């Protein structure tokens, strides 16, 4: 029977399904269980924090498939796998809706101040509280700029259209008008200059490391709302810190970071208008289960069949 090692948590139902088809062992890299089974392992299932590189692959001589229970592949050396005849599979689209919803959760937090009352207020306190919570602007008054127009970028544009938000986007790929959801394509420079809100949804290709740099921040509005729910490597953290310290009316809301977790000297810590979240945009039970069903492709490969979702040769959003 084939042996599959699961290094990070999977949802129960997909895990049980796979367990009916092969021997499943939950063991993080570096554990005794992993070391004991490495030479016999046929499938390796990872999430975000297991690095699959040539060094690890050398320890897995009988490996047939690496599965990423998620979308991004920046923690997997796909070429090194394929050079060894190891297939790589992932779960594109499994968490797109969850991430798009989270983008709007952040936007409403940014634009609509609110409190919940835990005590009664007299008339004066009531009126004072209401006055303090008047939003400076609402979403419909903003220009929304989407940098990267893949699956998630398109979902964000579709939702924005329902709010009658003027939406522009920039992408390196031409998008057919029928799939733009009312968003207008613009250059990078125009997007950065005109957007009241900039949300980044580009992929993890190496050329996107540090994409949002000093020049990019320097082109943004002084009161921009900047969101990154894509990949931590996209944003230059020092450039980001310098911009938001210099522009107290601006606001950054960052769900992803490089590295994760970051340490106490991370340049974006302790900046009042920079909010850091612990990589939770896709953290819904529905999305987690969808991503975990990557095990279907694990089973396909172990049976000698072609997978439904092989890793692309280029990065994916």
Rg, Cα atoms, Å: 22 Å
Question: Into which percent range does the helicity of residues fall?
Answer: 25-40%
**Main sheet, how many strands, which sense, barrel?**
7 strands, parallel
What is the residue-averaged pLDDT?
A: 96
Q: Can you list the strand order of the major beta sheet?
A: 8-7-6-9-10-11-12
- The termini sit apart by 35 Å
Throw out a few tags for this protein:
single chain, 15% strand, 317 residues, 7-stranded parallel sheet, alpha/beta, 12 helices
How do the helices and strands line up, and which of them pair or pack?
Blueprint (H helix, E strand, L loop, with lengths): L2 E4 L5 H8 L3 E4 L5 H6 L5 E4 L7 H4 L7 E4 L9 H6 L3 E3 L6 H16 L11 H10 L10 E5 L3 H12 L3 E5 L13 E2 L2 H7 L2 E4 L13 H5 L6 E4 L8 H10 L4 E4 L19 E3 L8 H8 L2 H8 L15
Parallel strand pairs: 1-2, 1-3, 3-4, 4-5, 6-7, 6-9, 7-8, 9-10, 10-11, 11-12
Helix pairs in contact: 1-12, 5-7
Account of the protein in words:
This protein has helices at 12-19, 32-37, 54-57, 78-83, 96-111, 123-132, 151-162, 188-194, 214-218, 237-246, 285-292, 295-302; strands spanning 3-6, 23-26, 43-46, 65-68, 87-89, 143-147, 166-170, 184-185, 197-200, 225-228, 251-254, 274-276. Strands 8-7-6-9-10-11-12 form a seven-stranded parallel sheet, with helices on both faces. It is elongated and about 70 Å long. It contains twelve helices and twelve strands. The chain is α/β, with parallel strands linked by helices and 317 residues long.
